[in-house]
User: Which sequence fits this backbone?
């Protein structure tokens, strides 16, 4: 059996998804969970892009011990130096250099000839090798590149010292049979290909990223680039959980390969990424969607009770989905609270724990039964609130069918309290207008979703929203038993990302 190397790019290509932006502590939190999940390599960021990204990659490199830590670089000296510096503290560092090879990119983006591109790639790999032994090279837009040129540049990249050759379907243009023939052709036409691992990197513009990645594996690729929940540029990247579970569920098809992913950590990882990036997982999303293991039809329910495999090809426990447990109540103490959070995979520091405990007690006063999902929502909120510039102090709203909704919101910026009042079309609109006055931002609401975290009248409500501020889209999320409060928290969460950036 041969291992498929899982190269997770949630923190790099995933974070390029419009609206998704993570702080360095949030990136580190996700990296710890990716390591627990068992990913082989974490692509932690693009250090030259910003000092914040460079710091995040460095923090990950210092703390992650089992997984490899990779940084992205264009074929430019300053990129390579920034990437090398950021991954230096890692136990298993890797630099990933990329350069487009398709005629479209050569003609319109670079205005350069093929020979010149070959030279730039070769020099960049040689330079990267002076810092690090483990170099990956990506001919960007490989699936739209002329094959003879692709073979030549791959051969030259391996000669220059690249150990992994990644084949990106950058614009999600390809389809499974084409990917199969491309990987097969590379194996047959690049003389030194056995000296490198072939990787695949697919985008989902036509909804075929996972199918294309699996097709590449069948043709001999042994590393797959993927992201948790399939988040990424435009329509996203190939989803990690779908690839891993396809390989596990169909050993008849993927007889020669395995992954070392601890699949029981999949659901928890999905939730963490969804909550920190504020990307809602669609209910019908394969593997991790709320409905992925729910049976609505009576015929199906009856059959599943008789024999699960009638309508379930996977066991939900294998991906870490368990019934949300009733766990704590208002008499539960701090110790039980901390221990339960630990079993949920949260390691809050003292300050975060104190704040989360206060919110837990407030929630327990309003809500009789506290479930794991409630706890997770509180803990995930606290991971962000502690580093927040803006914090909610209190608010009041007046609304109804006969009066114009009016809100008064008090927030704290660092230690200063600020108050804003406004009317609006509804109570949430009035609060957002009051917040706009306080923060000075003219935030345009692009998207607003409300979800119940658990069932019941007293369930926690979670608001996920997207604000457009100065042309930038930014996501936010907040939870409370009061949906207006949840909306205010979500607004502040988004604003905090801009102000702490
Ligand atoms: O999609 C792409 O081509 C990329 C490269 C940087 C590998 O993300
Ligand atoms: Zn990509």
Assistant:
């Amino acid at each position: 059996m041969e291992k498929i190397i899982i190269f997770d790019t949630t923190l790099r290509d995933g974070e390029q998804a419009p609206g998704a932006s993570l702080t360095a502590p949030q990136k580190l939190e996700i990296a710890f969970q990716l390591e627990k999940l068992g990913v082989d390599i974490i692509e932690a960021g693009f250090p030259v892009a910003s000092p914040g990204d460079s710091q995040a990659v460095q923090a990950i490199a210092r703390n992650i011990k089992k997984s490899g830590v990779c940084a992205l670089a264009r074929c430019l000296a300053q990129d390579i130096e920034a990437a090398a510096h950021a991954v230096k503290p890692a136990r298993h560092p890797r630099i990933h250099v990329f350069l487009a090879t398709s005629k479209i990119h050569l003609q319109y983006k670079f205005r350069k000839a093929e020979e010149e591109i070959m030279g730039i790639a070769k020099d960049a790999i040689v330079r990267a090798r002076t810092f690090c032994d483990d170099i990956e090279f990506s001919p960007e837009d490989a699936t739209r590149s002329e094959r003879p040129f692709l073979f030549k540049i791959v051969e030259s990249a391996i000669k220059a010292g690249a150990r992994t050759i990644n084949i990106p379907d950058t614009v999600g243009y390809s389809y499974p049979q084409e990917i199969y023939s491309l990987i097969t052709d590379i194996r047959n036409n690049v003389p030194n290909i056995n000296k490198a691992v072939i990787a695949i990197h697919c985008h989902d513009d036509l909804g075929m990223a996972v199918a294309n990645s699996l097709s590449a594996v069948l043709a001999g690729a042994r590393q797959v680039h993927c992201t948790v929940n399939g988040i990424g540029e435009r329509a996203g990247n190939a989803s990690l959980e779908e690839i891993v579970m396809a390989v596990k569920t169909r050993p008849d098809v993927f007889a020669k390969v395995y992954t070392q992913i601890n699949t029981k950590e999949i659901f928890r990882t999905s939730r963490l990424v969804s909550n920190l990036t504020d990307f809602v997982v669609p209910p019908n999303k394969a593997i991790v969607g709320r409905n992925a293991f729910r049976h609505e039809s009576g015929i199906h329910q009856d059959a599943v009770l008789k024999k699960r495999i009638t309508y379930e090809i996977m066991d939900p426990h294998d991906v870490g989905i368990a019934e949300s447990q009733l766990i704590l109540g208002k008499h539960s103490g701090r110790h039980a609270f901390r221990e339960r959070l630990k079993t949920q995979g949260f390691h809050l520091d003292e300050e975060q724990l104190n704040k989360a405990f206060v919110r837990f007690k407030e929630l327990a006063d309003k809500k009789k039964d506290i479930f794991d999902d409630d706890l997770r929502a509180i803990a995930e909120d606290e991971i962000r609130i502690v580093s927040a510039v803006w914090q909610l102090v209190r608010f009041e709203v007046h609304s109804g069918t006969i009066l114009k909704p009016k809100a008064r919101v008090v927030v704290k910026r660092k230690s200063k309290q600020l108050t804003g009042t406004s009317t609006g079309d509804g109570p949430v609109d009035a609060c957002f207008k009051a917040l706009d006055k306080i923060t000075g931002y003219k935030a345009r609401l692009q998207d607003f979703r409300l979800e119940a975290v658990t069932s019941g009248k007293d369930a926690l409500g979670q608001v996920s929203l997207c604000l457009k501020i100065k042309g930038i889209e930014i996501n936010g999320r907040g939870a409370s038993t009061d949906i207006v409060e949840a909306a205010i928290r979500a607004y502040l969460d988004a604003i905090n990302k801009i102000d702490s950036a």
Q: What stands out?
A: The longest strand covers residues 390-398. Residues 293-323 form one domain. The chain has four domains: 2-277, 293-323, 325-383, 390-499.
